[in-house]
């Protein structure tokens, strides 16, 4: 959240570390959702997680180096979104052998995540302020569900029925959405 795929102070550092540690013996790819650094950061606040997961599935299928399988590493919401990639795209290939997540909110969040500029100062970014405002309007309002990434993994323990009916993302990947049949082959992977 509030980061780009390749920031040298975040997941980009993990990518560099793995490349250095493994001395070029493995292919390491970092996934960008936005076409520029700024758009990549904005995509961590705004858009559809479902659309982003579909985009990543398509991207992974197009990378020749991954066709025999791969190991995925995700930080925070990126780890949660990679779990959705496994659940939704594994059957289409390529095969994810291992998923490593760090600080991922697999059961969702019940409060607005704190968000600050990547430089770690104390002034929230405008993207963060807008996202917090949207969540304040109501995480399960359809407009907010369609447009706020964090609303799509928001889980209010006092509104579980509303969550199951209106969650655009988390309730589905956690097999908690209203009307889901857990024995559906889609959820048996």
Helix-strand layout with pairing:
Layout lengths: L10 H11 L15 H6 L6 H13 L8 E6 L1 H13 L6 E7 L23 H12 L4 H6 L12 H7 L3 H4 L16
Parallel strand pairs: 1-2
Helix pairs in contact: 3-4
In short:
This protein is mainly alpha-helical and 189 residues long.
Q: For the record, what CATH class applies?
A: Alpha Beta
**Number of self-contained structural domains:** 1
Reported for the largest beta sheet, the result is: 2 strands, parallel
- The run of helices and strands is HHHEHEHHHH
Q: What is the strand content?
A: 5-15%
> Rg to the nearest angstrom?
17 Å
Number of strands: 2
Q: Can you describe what's shown?
A:
With 189 residues, this protein is mainly alpha-helical. It has one domain: Alpha/Beta hydrolase fold, catalytic domain (Rossmann fold), CATH 3.40.50.1820. The chain is 38% helix and 7% strand. It is built from eight helices and two strands. It has helices at 11-21, 37-42, 49-61, 77-89, 126-137, 142-147, 160-166, 170-173; strands at 70-75, 96-102. A two-stranded parallel sheet has the order 1-2. α4 (77-89) links the parallel β1 and β2 (96-102). α3 (49-61) packs across α4 (77-89).
List its traits.
mainly alpha, 189 residues, two-stranded parallel sheet, Rossmann fold, globular, 38% helix, 2 strands
